[in-house]
Amino acid sequence: MRIVSGIQPSGELHIGNYLGALRQFTALQDEHECFFFLADLHALTELPAPETLRDRVVATAIDYLAVGLDPQKATLFLQSDVPAHAELMWLLATLTPVGDLERMTQYKEKARDAKKRRLVNAGLLTYPILMAADILLYRAEAVPVGEDQLQHLELARRIAHRFNDRFPPPLFPEPNALMQKKGARIMSLADPRKKMSKSHGPETYIGIFDSPDSIRKKIQKAVTDSGTTVSYDPRRKPALANLLTLYALFAEEELRESAQRFSHSGYAIFKQALTELLIQKLSPFRERRQTLAQSPPHIRAVLERGAERALAVSQETLREARTRMGIA
Ligand code: TYM
Q1: According to a count of CB atoms within 10 Å of the terminal CB, is the N or C end of the chain lower?
Q2: Minimum-distance ligand 1 atom for the alpha carbon of 185
Q3: How far apart are CA 34 and CA 26, in angstroms?
Q4: What number does CATH give the domain 198-290?
Q5: Domain layout of the chain by residue ranges
Q6: How far apart are the C-alpha atoms of 216 and 189, rounded to whole Å?
Q7: 281 CA distance to ligand 1 centroid (A)?
Q8: Residue 192: pLDDT above 90?
Q9: To 5 degrees, how large is the angle CA 257–CA 214–CA 246?
Q10: What is the pTM for the complete model shown?
């Protein structure tokens, strides 16, 4: 299978990003032809300072390698190094109803936030078309993502369908989401009704590269529900259900087994075990990250090599799309 996915270089990555996306990436690279990129064009919609964005691109590329993405197995590249993404986006924009864009939940949320800062830029609205271009450019069949990206992926499928219909024979596969059954929506440590996200503050998420000390403090402070015994009950005990999900995913066992293991323990003992497990699983990433951070030139070389491969594949699709539409 041909697989594509991306992550915005917009700051520290958390264990939601890891369980929803990165962990799948590392598993998929062994079996499939994978293109994983840093979505810096998408990150521009948040209007970062230029220096900040430049630094984050390097930092996120290091993060990719630190969690186990391997440039020998997967093509790792920077979205803006491949101009065909932006060009295909324009072609696809002409096939996308504005109403579809205005209905996107993420757009509505971001536009509401942005309004407070007085600029709802057009990039926030057209964001999903760029995402469709990212995927269709490689004629990908599958896209590993967390649940929050499903609506965008559905739109990408519709855009592919419309293009194929209008300019036959079919050029683009309609891409499927690859989603984890349990890790697709990890919730905030402070409020189990909200998804884990950087934007709610550092105490609400565990960073993939957090120090043991920070992990300890954050799990200790994580909200739990009333009651004293550990059980998996997402409706009545959503906070605990989220923590148990984290335990099961990192322990690589069924939720049922994790719940059973702690059924006679109080919250404190369970939290202690979760803390130790997270430290044990995340420490190797942190150590690898520290080593990689000492060689940024190596990182640049990885991205340059990735871009060469991505350019070659994307040029071919773009040429075909242009011809079909009558501009070549
Ligand atoms: P981004 O950068 O917000 O998030 C990266 C990936 O992490 C997943 N994720 C989560 N999964 C589980 N629980 C959570 N709490 C959680 N938070 C984030 C996201 O679903 C995502 O898979 N638009 C995309 C980037 C993108 C892209 C693409 C993805 C651009 N072009 C093409 C796939 C294909 C985004 O902003 O992800």
Answers
A1: C
A2: 13
A3: 10
A4: 1.10.240.10
A5: 2-184+296-324, 198-290
A6: 13
A7: 22
A8: yes
A9: 20
A10: 0.96
